[in-house]
Specification:
This protein is α/β, with parallel strands linked by helices. Helix content is 38%, strand content 21%. Strands 6-9-8-7-12-10-13-11 form an eight-stranded parallel beta sheet, sandwiched between helices. It has a five-stranded mixed beta sheet with strand order 1-4-3-5-2, sandwiched between helices. Helix 7 links the parallel strand 7 and strand 8.
Length: 291
């Protein structure tokens, strides 16, 4: 077994480049849990880097065996090199690159419109904090959203901080980019989507949000609720380019004079609310024999 003992090795440099600058079509992973989560989600590992110390453990041997079975390139590095590859405070000596890229936003719109059940896509508008981006992807996957689409100015889904915050959820849910966010929103509206904009102060409370529309309120032949939930940055909120197309604005009512929540926390609450509304709509439709 060859052990790489220099950070100047081309394979090590390739991984560090992926972390520091990003490489289109590749996502860097670090740590046992994140790599294992990616494998469980069906992600395609291109390379697995494992330190000598980690490779000697039972969990390290099992991970290496699984990665080999999936066709990954196995690279063993010295513990010193592994320490210098790490982007975390408590490195475990396990790194990987995964073949992955976000989808075009339009394809996620088309997928979410399939079927007879309500569905919604979370749209990120100017969210530059990668930790928030990754947390929202994790919440969207866990709480019932059909996908997440990021517009210009948002942190990359492949940013190591976003990847860690998503905890592998980016491999479990549709994730896309929109080059022109207003055009994406206009396309959604043309496809029958509601545009629900989050706002710290304006609009109806989350409890009062009337989505999906009641069966009696829908035009004949129109599919049940399709929506995009637009979340803006903490500093600027949702842009006017998106807000002007809103069919509803929704807020979270605060207690104890708290002005607002962190963007990822607020988004997670709203995703949960919309997921529960969709589930109740579906339960009511089933009880009425419409499914």
């Amino acid at each position: 077994m060859q052990v790489i003992a220099s950070v100047r090795n081309s394979a090590v440099r390739a991984y560090r480049e992926c972390v520091s600058r990003g490489v289109p079509g590749l996502v860097p992973l670090e740590g046992f849990r994140l790599v294992e989560d990616a494998l469980r989600a069906g992600a395609v590992l291109v390379a697995l880097y494992i330190a000598e110390g980690a490779a000697a453990t039972a969990v390290g041997r099992q991970l290496a065996e699984t990665a080999c079975e999936r066709g990954a390139n196995m690279i063993t590095v010295s513990d010193d090199v592994a320490g210098r590859m790490a982007d975390t405070r408590s490195p475990q000596g396990v790194f990987a690159t995964v073949a992955w890229a976000p989808e075009p936003g339009a394809s996620l719109l088309a997928k979410a419109a399939e079927g007879e059940k309500p569905s919604f896509i979370v749209v990120l508008d100017g969210m530059s904090d990668p930790g928030n981006v990754g947390t929202i992807v994790r919440s969207a996957a866990a709480l019932g959203a059909a996908g997440v689409v990021a517009g210009p100015g948002c942190a990359s889904f492949a940013n190591p901080k976003a990847v860690r915050a998503s905890m592998g959820s980016m491999f479990r849910i549709g994730v896309g980019r929109a080059q022109e966010l207003e055009e994406f929103v206009k396309q959604a509206r043309a496809g029958g989507y509601d545009v629900i904009v989050s706002d710290a102060r304006a609009g109806v409370s989350a409890d009062e949000l009337a989505w999906p529309a009641p069966e009696a309120g829908r035009a004949p032949g129109r599919v049940p609720g399709r929506a995009i939930l637009a979340i803006g940055s903490e500093a600027r909120g949702v842009s006017e380019d998106v807000r002007r197309h809103a069919t509803a604005q929704v807020r979270l009512d605060m207690s104890r004079d708290v002005e607002s929540l962190n963007a990822a926390a607020a988004a997670s609450v709203l995703i949960y609310v919309m997921g529960r509304k969709a589930a109740r709509w579906e339960a009511g439709a089933r009880a009425a024999g419409r499914f």
